[in-house]
Amino acid sequence: MSALPETSALFSVLQRGELSRAHVERFAAERAACHGSLLDSRSTGGPALGYAEHVGSILKHVSLHEGRMVLERPRPFGRVWEESAGAASDVAGVMLELDVFGKSQLAHCFLASWLNQSGAFDALEVLRAQIARAALLAREPVAPGHHERPAARVTLPALLAAARARLEPSALPFLVITHGLSGSGKTTATRALVGTTPALAVSNDAEAHRLRFAGVRLDPGVVAAKLESLALRCMRSGWPVIVESCFLSRDDRQRFRATARAVGVPFAIVHCTAPLALIGERLERRRSFGSLFHGSDAEGAAVQRELAAQIQRTDPLDEAEQAQAVVLDTAAALDVARVTARLYELLDGGTPATWRSSAPEHPPGSQATPNC
Fold first, then answer.
1. Residue 36: phi, psi to the nearest 5?
2. Does domain 175-368 have CATH number 3.40.50.300?
3. Dihedral angle at the C-alpha atoms of 88, 205, 366, 362, nearest 10 degrees?
4. Which residues sit opposite 272 in a β-bridge?
5. What is the 3-state secondary structure (H, E, C) of 22-68?
6. Contacts for 275-281 with beta carbons within 8 Å, 24 or more apart?
7. Would you give per-residue pLDDT tens digits along the chain (372 residues)?
């Protein structure tokens, strides 16, 4: 790879405050694609990126080039790690360095995006251990480049302090589910809340796609069982989780409410609504991109039939569910700060400060415009 301009070095971008969530999420998606062979149970494994002994210098080898975070290897190939542990070691290293640079929110978004793209939620079971291991094995603290200030240095004490902070869960787990028709804004709301809470996200569409790709028949209950198992994995590994799906059936909502009760964590519902005309417009846009109803193709008339069928089989929230729900009219811009505060009130019985104390900081700007 040809040398990239020094002005695009990631440290300079970090110092100018120009590294965005979009940059980090795209980088995470690309890392997940690179980790595919490691995470594929049918493969014999492949090389991880080989940074377990280079933590402290990972971001030194990343540049921002035409809106992308581009990684250059410090050596031709790293050592081979066991399947998910190897991928987890790479994720741990990136998160740890972002933490040291005061970008814990971006580290969280990196993890959430990587999980959504890879589906490797089992990595959560070893991630904190990998973060500690990465800090202990770090041998090459980052030295600033000749165009960078001395403050752009990752020291071993700083790495160890960041690792200690990650060893224990930063927040008590909780379980939140979404509710609403396709096109009502659930994806936008979930993404916004991942940026303002410590929660990870489990996506119905992503998991349905993975099951279908694996040759699994999507019989009734199959996707719901997968979503429940992943939510349990998140919570038992110490992470709060938002499960994004329509949850039109009261039985499905009660199933997840019972799961939260069994694990002993708070439960809430994010209920997304919008005028039917606007929902229809959003679904038509999604149809043109081939992302409608779990990726299936459909003609315009079929879209209206499916929407009508969803309306027909929707069980409205009962009184008990309404008491646990945040209602969002997604026809307007989403006030993320207000929604987050209301969600914490529901989760913590009216004392949201307990939950907010360990949540990631709000991203620049506090509103999001729904597009799905």
1. -55, -45
2. yes
3. -20
4. 328
5. HHHHHHHHHHHHHCHHHHCCCCCCCECCCCCCCCCCCHHHEEEECCE
6. 275/331, 276/307, 278/183, 278/331, 279/181, 279/182, 279/183, 279/184, 279/307, 280/183, 280/304, 280/307
7. 334 344 356 767 777 778 899 999 999 998 888 777 555 543 333 445 545 455 555 666 676 766 777 766 544 444 433 444 578 888 888 898 889 888 999 999 999 999 999 999 999 998 998 888 878 776 545 444 444 444 456 677 888 888 888 887 767 899 999 999 999 999 999 999 999 999 999 999 999 999 998 999 999 899 999 999 999 999 999 999 999 999 999 999 999 999 999 999 999 999 999 999 999 889 888 776 655 444 455 567 778 888 899 999 999 999 999 999 999 999 999 999 999 999 999 998 643 333 333 333 443 334 444 433
**Integer Cα distance of 96 and 235 in angstroms:** 21
Residue 57: Cβ within 10 Å count: 19
Q: DSSP character for 20?
A: -
Q: Which residues pair with 47 in a beta bridge?
A: 80
Rounded Cα gap, residues 128 and 164, in angstroms: 9
Strand partners, 327: 271
Q: What are the backbone angles phi and psi of residue 337, rounded to the nearest 5°?
A: -65, -45
- What type of residue sits at position 181? L
Question: CA 185, CA 128: separation in Å to the nearest integer?
Answer: 33
What residue spans define the domains of the chain? 6-167, 175-368
One-letter amino acid for residue 360 of the chain: P
Side chain identity at residue 130, one-letter code = Q
